């Protein structure tokens, strides 16, 4: 999942070297915390959150196709 998020976000940002995805695993969920350069936050979120929603939709769909893990997946964009 981390590679999928990086693949989606890298072309969107001006500073791909500042992109990081941290994974926080809990008993019933996995949270991917996406961090980008301050100047790229708007590009990742998009107008009215459309880009962020699209990223979450793709990640949730990819997680749903995995049969080996029944944990809920979340994507958070942190500043």
UniProtKB/TrEMBL annotation:
It is found in: Cytoplasm. Keywords: Cell shape, Cell wall biogenesis/degradation, Chaperone, Cytoplasm, RNA-binding. Its main location: cytoplasm. InterPro entries: KH_dom-like_a/b (IPR015946), KH_sf_prok-type (IPR009019), KhpA (IPR020627). The keyword Lipid biosynthesis does not apply. Pfam families: KH_KhpA-B. Belongs to the KhpA RNA-binding protein family. Forms a complex with KhpB. A probable RNA chaperone. Forms a complex with KhpB which binds to cellular RNA and controls its expression. Plays a role in peptidoglycan (PG) homeostasis and cell length regulation. HAMAP family: KhpA. This is RNA-binding protein KhpA. It comes from Bacillus carboniphilus.
């Amino acid at each position: 999942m981390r590679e999928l998020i990086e693949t989606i976000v890298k072309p969107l940002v001006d500073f791909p070297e500042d992109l990081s995805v941290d994974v926080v695993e809990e008993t019933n969920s996995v949270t991917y915390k996406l961090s980008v350069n301050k100047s790229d936050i708007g590009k990742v979120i998009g107008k009215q959150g459309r880009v962020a929603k699209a990223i979450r939709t793709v990640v949730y769909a990819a997680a749903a196709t995995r049969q080996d893990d029944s944990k809920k997946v979340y994507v958070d964009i942190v500043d």
